Amino acid sequence: MPGTVTISIELELGWGVAKYGKLDKLSDGRMAETQYLSRLLERCDDHDVPITFDVVGHLFHENCAGHHGGPHPDDWWDIDPGTSVDEDPAFYAPDLVEDIRSRRTTHEICTHTYSHIECDAVDPTVVEWEVDRSRRVHERNGVPAATSIVPPRHGTPPSETLAEGGIRVKRSPHYRAPGERRPSSDVRKLYEILLERHPTVSPREMDGIIETYSPEYTTLAVPYLQTGQYSPHPVYRPIPHTFRQRLHAWNLRRGVDAAVQGGDVHYWCHLYDLANEQQWPQIDDFLGYLAKRRDRGDVEIRPMRDLPAICGQPTLNEADPAEQPGIVIE
Ligand SMILES: [Zn+2]
Ligand SMILES: [Zn+2]
């Protein structure tokens, strides 16, 4: 049986960076993000590749008054400009949501919470509010209710809250088998990012939610090249730039090859990561390669919404824990 490739891209723009003083990671007026999303969507149509876009609910709005209530900490909405898409396109992006929806390929719009909340750092009532508010935003905009979630900054949300909000699938950081350790040193971590093949880990059901796994670091766009408008970390710079680009292309293809051998590979990054000429050419090449292998029947491309089906789980309630798939780590 062929393996699967899942691609998820976080669309959060200012909501993911403003709190950390990194708004300049985005391009002016997020023009590059808008343009590269369009290029990506064109390529997806050329090759019939569906992607899971993890969209922060607030980005659906044309404008707002700058405060949304909720059981959040008092200063939570301080970064909300309370303006409109024309004035602050990093905080409102109905045009990008529309671009995704208008394409021939049926992409998945999953939730990345309403305001990029770190789910393990707040009270569960805040997570509940965020999931519910995202659901309402989808409904109001005629977008199918999200059945998947990508928790911001890998902050684990309570499974019960997700299940109650209709969420069946979540992306989690790379599951490591018992005995398999996280890299114990910076050198080892560097080696993993640069040279190890993409991990293949089968999705599995945990507390009623199917988890799909990807490394903590981005793997569609990569940290060793320019990410958004930021230069890569100085540790990567002694490696010639053209070599790093070749490494990126090789690593992307190697992940597909791992899936062809029967694994499940989940690539991810943020939209702003790939929105530059250092990252994009390799991703363009990868989409063509992935589609070619899929067309040959070597691999399947599955957005997150399709993962319950490959886990043999028609509904959450009918899931039989005894029949959950095992974990394969390579
Ligand atoms: Zn707002
Ligand atoms: Zn995010």
From TrEMBL:
GO BP field: carbohydrate metabolic process
NodB homology domain ranges (all copies): 34-153
Residue ranges of coiled coil: none
GO molecular function: hydrolase activity, acting on carbon-nitrogen (but not peptide) bonds
Pfam families, per database record: Polysacc_deac_1 (PF01522)
InterPro entries for this protein: Glyco_hydro/deAcase_b/a-brl, NODB_dom
The protein's name: Polysaccharide deacetylase
Originating species: Halovivax ruber (strain DSM 18193 / JCM 13892 / XH-70)
